[in-house]
Design goal:
This protein is an alpha+beta fold. The protein contains six helices and seven strands, in the order αβαββααββαββα.
């Protein structure tokens, strides 16, 4: 029997899911602010569902190189998250963490990757913790895996994960301003069918959706 696609959702259901992204990103920005000991202004210009077929275009084309952090979701939900930065944005974050001039770091360096991994742990941890608190469930992230690769390779990875149960992924595009230093990133949420249905059920109860 063909598996039902996940995201045949109405607008109210999609708006409720987007609210999770807004809450999570705001709390993650607060955690990053404490890490860097700097005031951070976070802007969320887009929270939307992106068709898998248009995924590469969202990140500047299939051959554009990005830095991504991948985590599995365990606990009451099953799924994956991807935190994706253009290389220049990732390098800016590493420079800020290491207290050096912007433009110094190269994310391929072992020390730079270690700093970026620390940031990713804190940012994604705060994001998922706020999501768990919001839904009143338990979410346990796996150890993050960081890679620098072309968007096409990441798209192929996502296709392998979600092609059986989803035509879209939830993309949260963020801009983080730190003392006039703009950093752009994307947070991608991927759920299996059972987990998505569970999230929708919790949101419907919370917002009184029919």
């Amino acid at each position: 029997m063909k598996m039902e696609k996940l995201l045949n959702l109405n607008d109210m259901e999609k708006d409720a899911l987007k609210e999770i992204g807004n809450v999570g990103t705001g709390n993650a920005a607060t955690a990053l602010s404490k890490l860097l000991n700097k005031h951070i202004e976070i802007i969320i210009p887009e929270t939307k569902f992106v068709p898998i077929t248009k995924f590469a275009k969202e990140f500047g084309g299939a051959e554009n190189v990005v830095v991504s952090t991948y985590l599995q979701l365990l606990g009451d939900l099953s799924g994956e998250t991807l935190f994706i930065f253009p290389v220049k944005s990732a390098e800016k974050i590493v420079d800020l963490m290491m207290g050096q001039p912007i433009g110094t770091s190269k994310i391929i360096d072992e020390m730079s990757q270690s700093a970026f991994k620390e940031m990713s742990n804190i940012f994604t941890g705060a994001y998922l913790n706020s999501m768990a608190d919001f839904l009143e469930i338990k979410i346990l992230p796996s150890v993050p895996h960081i890679t620098t690769d072309m968007v096409q390779s990441i798209m192929d990875f996502i296709l392998a994960k979600v092609s059986n149960h989803s035509d879209d992924v939830l993309s949260i595009k963020t801009s983080i301003n730190i003392k006039d230093i703009e950093i752009e990133g994307f947070f991608i949420m991927i759920f299996d069918i059972a987990s998505m249905n569970k999230v929708l059920g919790l949101l419907k109860k919370m917002y009184g959706l029919s």
